[in-house]
Design brief:
By secondary structure, this protein is mainly alpha-helical. It has one domain: Up-down Bundle (Ferritin), CATH 1.20.1260. 74% of the residues lie in helices and 0% in strands. The N and C termini lie far apart (50 Å).
Length: 175
């Protein structure tokens, strides 16, 4: 059985993961309307990944005798001052999520719930990867500077990172 304190922090993290998904959907939509097809696909994939993170937490909490509960979310931002600024916000958000995961992990240890701490280890490792990926993208954007050709190359690389082909709407034509 999970403690009330741990249930509270895990429910908060469920909210954070759901909000992350919505933030990335808003960013993907903006990118799609600005011609950044690769960035849009990358961010749509990130949104799906965050939803998976949320569902994993929901199932875990319910399986441990807790009750995962959905909470109200603030509407995400709709406009950005460019692709680099957008990805800087992605990095800042991932750093925020890292801090929140660390709070969950710390609470699990304080509550002596080592099963939950072990479960959360996957999220701890995932955040290292997320921050590294976003730092790498921003580093490439810094190298490209104001070069439109450089931005095009980065956009194409983001498309490959998202899984390569397919349309950003998530539907692909079948041959």
């Amino acid at each position: 059985m999970i403690t009330n304190k741990l249930q509270e922090v895990l429910n908060n993290q469920i909210k954070n993961e759901e909000h992350s998904s919505r933030i990335y959907l808003a960013m993907a939509s903006w990118c799609e309307t600005k011609g950044y097809e690769g960035a849009a696909e990358f961010l749509y994939a990130q949104a799906d990944e965050e939803k998976m993170h949320m569902l994993k937490l929901i199932h875990y909490l319910n399986d441990r005798g807790g009750h995962a509960q959905m909470q109200a979310l603030d509407a995400p931002k709709k406009e950005w001052d460019g692709l680099k600024k957008l990805f800087e916000e992605v990095l800042a958000h991932e750093e925020f999520i890292t801090g929140e995961i660390n709070k969950c992990y710390e609470t699990a240890l304080n509550e002596k719930d080592y099963n939950t701490a072990q479960f959360l280890q996957w999220y701890v490792e995932e955040q290292v990867e997320e921050e590294s990926t976003m730092n790498s993208i921003i580093d490439k954007m810094n190298l490209a500077g104001d070069s439109k050709g450089g931005l095009l190359q980065i956009d194409m690389a983001l498309k490959k990172m998202a899984g390569g082909g397919g349309s950003s709407s998530g539907t692909e034509e079948k041959a």
